[in-house]
Amino acid sequence: MKNYDMTRHVRGESLFADDFIVPEGTLYASVFDSSIAHGKILSIDISEAEKFPGVKKVILAQDIPGQNQIGGIIQDEPLLAENEVHFCGQPIAIVLAESLLIAREAKKKIKIEYKELTPITDAREAYAKGMLIIPPRIFSNGNVEEAFKHCGVVVEGKIETGAQEHLYLETQGAIAFPTEGNGIKIISSTQGPTATQRAACKVLGLPMHQVEVDVMRLGGGFGGKEDQANAWAAMAAVSAFLIKKTVKLILPRQEDMRMTGKRHPYSADFKMGLSNDGKILAYEVTFFQNAGAAADLSTAILDRTLFHATNSYFVPNVKATGLSCRTNLPPNTAFRGFGGPQAMFTFEAAIQKAADKLGVAASVIQEKNLLKEKDEFHYGQLAENSKAQACWFKAKEKFHFDQIKKNVDTFNTENKIYKKGFACMPICFGISFTNTFMNQAGALVHIYSDGSVGVSTAAVEMGQGVNEKIRLVAAEIFSIDKAKIKVETTNTTRVANTSPTAASSAADLNGKATELACKNLAERLMTFIKEELNFSSSDRIAFRDEQVYCNDRAIGLTWTELIQKAFFTRVNLSAQAHYAVPGIYFDKEKNKGKAFAYYSFGTAVVEVTVDCIRGTYVVDSVKAVHDFGKSFANVIDRGQAEGAIMQGIGWMTMEEIIYNTDGKLLTDALSTYKVPDIHSAPKEIEVHFLENSDNPLGIFNSKAIGEPPLMYGIGTFFALQNAMKAFRPEKEFEFSAPLTPEKVLLSLYKE
Ligand code: MTE
Ligand code: LUZ
Ligand code: MOS
Q1: In a shared domain, residues 217 and 332
Q2: Pocket test for ligand 2, best of 74, 434, 581 (most atoms within 8 A of CB)
Q3: Which helix (H) or strand (E) holds 397?
Q4: Domain range spanning residue 658?
Q5: Against a cut of 0.90, is the pTM above it?
Q6: Which of 580, 610, 629 is the last residue of a domain?
Q7: Handedness of CA 228, 229, 230, 232 (dihedral sign)
Q8: pLDDT tens string 357-385
Q9: Is the distance from the beta carbon of residue 217 to the nearest atom of ligand 1 less than 6 Å?
C-alpha cells in the first residue's frame, strides 16, 4: 500500500506551512516572551526595538483589536501577557520585521521590568494553595469505603509520571494574508482548523465568515497542535490585520519547546483492595494533574484520566478524583492518549504493588480481572464487544507468556550483572471525544466532469495516514482507481464547524461523512442511469472497477463516460454530508453515561534487559495482539501501532522534561531532551491483528488506531522494574517515570 503523500514526501515536494511562497513585502514575526515564571510587568519599553532597522512594528496586548483571549474551554488565557506573566515563555510582544533574523535581533532590544512573584511548579503544592482550574471531579460507583473493609489485601502507594515533548518535526506556525473587506486568510499548522478560526476571530473581533483557515498537512501534531496551534495563528492574523501585509510566524525549535505545553505530568495516590485470590474489589485514586498556567484542554484531559482509571479491568467499587492544578509552567495540553496513559500507569502500579504483596506475578492479577462482555465501567457504560480477554489469551498463546517467564527466570539465575524483566500490558481505550458534541464531521465531494474526484473533509493529515484512508473510502464506494481521487486541503470554507483531528477518531468521523457523501452521489448516478437507459426500478445497478453493471452484467459504460453523460444531462455531481456518532451521551453532573462509541483493546508483552552495573538497558521486544477491528489499511495501521509504541516507550524511559524550581525549562533543545532513536527501539516489534473483530461504528468496520497502542509502552516501565527486582529483590522501587538509565542506576544503589 502506498501512502497518499509518499512520493511527494520522499522528493521533498510536500508543502508545509513554512514552504508556501509568500508575496513580496511579507513580514516575519518573532515572539518576545517572559523570562520569568511568575510576576507583574512593571514596565515595557519597545522604542529601541521599533527603531531597529528593518522593523515595521512591535505589537503589544493593547494593540489587539478584539479580545485578548484565546482560552478554548475556559477563558483564562490571554494571547499576549498584559500586566502579569504566569510562565516562562509566555508571549508578551510580537516583533514584525523584513526578515526573521532582523525580528529576532530586534527582540533583544525590548526592555522589560518585572516584580517577581514566587512560582509554583508542583501540582500538589498548587493544590495545597487552592490553585485548582475547576472544582475536583469525581467518577465513582459502588462504595469503596465499605468494600475496603472486606478485602483480604489492601495496598496503597503513589506514582509520578513526567511531561513529554511532542517534538513534531514541523514546529508551530502560521501565515496570515489580509483579504479584501478586512478579512484574513490563515495557513496554519493546526489540528483544529475551526478552533484556530474561532481564536483568530475572537482576537480580531471579526465574524467567522471573515476568517478562512486552510491546512495542507502537518509535519506531526501528536496533540500539540489540537489547541496550541491557535496562539501562533492568532498572532499572525492580528499582525496581518493591523499592518495589511502578509505575516509569517514560524517558531524556531527552541522557542517552540520553551513556549508550548507538553503532556501533563501527574502525581497520584492510589489504594487498591483485593480478595486473597487476587480479585480486585475496590480502587480509590486521586490524580494531581499539573495543568500549567492556563486551562487549555486540561479539564477534558482530566476527564479522560477518570474514564480510564481502571484501564482494561472490571472493578466493582471505584472512586476516582481528579484535581487539575494550576502551576507556573506553560499550559500543558493534549498528547496522544490525552490523560489515559497516566491513569493506566497508576492502575498498573497498583496491580504491581498488590502482586508483590500477594507474592504472585502481576499477570496473575491482570488476567483475573480483565473486562468481560458487558461489564460495567464506573461511569455507567458497558464494555460491549469487549475484546480484553480475547486479546490477552491470544497474546498469551502466541507469545507463550509462561515460556517468557521461564526464560527470564533462567537468564536471571545464570547472570549476575545483566537481568531480564518482562511485563504484560493490556489496554482499553474509549473511542469518541468525551465531549459528546464534538463527535461530528463533514465531507464535501465533487466529481469533476472528467471523472476525477476531489474530497474535502474536516480531517487534518499529520502523518497518520488519514488522507489515504479517506481516499480508500471514496475509491471503494465509487469502485474507481484511487489515483482518480484527490484529498483536498482542510479548509473552513469547504467544511465548516469542524472538530479537531484528535481523539483517534478523524478517520472514523470523516471517513463516515465521506462514505455518506459518496453513497449519496452513487445513488444519484444510479437513478440517472436507470432513467437515461430505461432500466426498471428493480434492476440492480452497480459500479465495479470503473464499469457500470446492471444485474451483474457490464453494460459497456465506463465511469468516465457515465460522468460525462451525467454532466451534460445536468445531474448535480457534488454532495455534502455530515456524520454524527449515534447513541452516545454523558451526564456531566452525575458523571454517568455512554461516553464512547466503542473501545479499542489489546495486550502487549514487553521484555527488557538491564545492565545493573551501568543502569543502561535495552528493550528486547514488544509483542502485541491488537484489536484493529477489520483494518482496511493494514500498512498504515501497523505503522500507527509501531509509532505509538515507540512514543510510549520514550515517555516511560528516556524522555525527561526538567524545569528548575524557578519554572525555567532546562531541556529546551534536542541536545538535552532525548527521544528514542534507532538504538533504543525494541530489537523486535511484533503487532498481530486480532481476528474476527467487527465494528459497525468504525469506518468500514475498522477501529481507531492513532492513540491506543501508545499505552503498550507502559509495560516497559514495569518490565524494567522487574529486572531491577531480580538484581535487588529486597528493595522496593518507586513508581516514578520516566525510568531513565540514571534513575535505574541510582535506585539500584541508593539505600
Ligand atoms: N501519527 C503521526 N504520524 N503523526 C501525528 O501527529 N498524531 C496522533 C495519531 N498518530 C499523530 C499520529 C494523535 S495524538 C492522534 S489523536 C491521531 O493520530 C489523530 O489522527 P486519527 O484520528 O486520524 O487517528
Ligand atoms: N480531545 C478532546 C481529545 O477534545 N477530547 C477527547 O476526548 C480527546 N481524546 C483523545 C485525544 N484528544
Ligand atoms: Mo490526539 S492527543 O487526540 O491529538
Answers
A1: no
A2: 434
A3: helix 388-399
A4: 266-434+588-749
A5: yes
A6: 580
A7: positive
A8: 999 999 999 999 999 999 999 999 999 99
A9: no
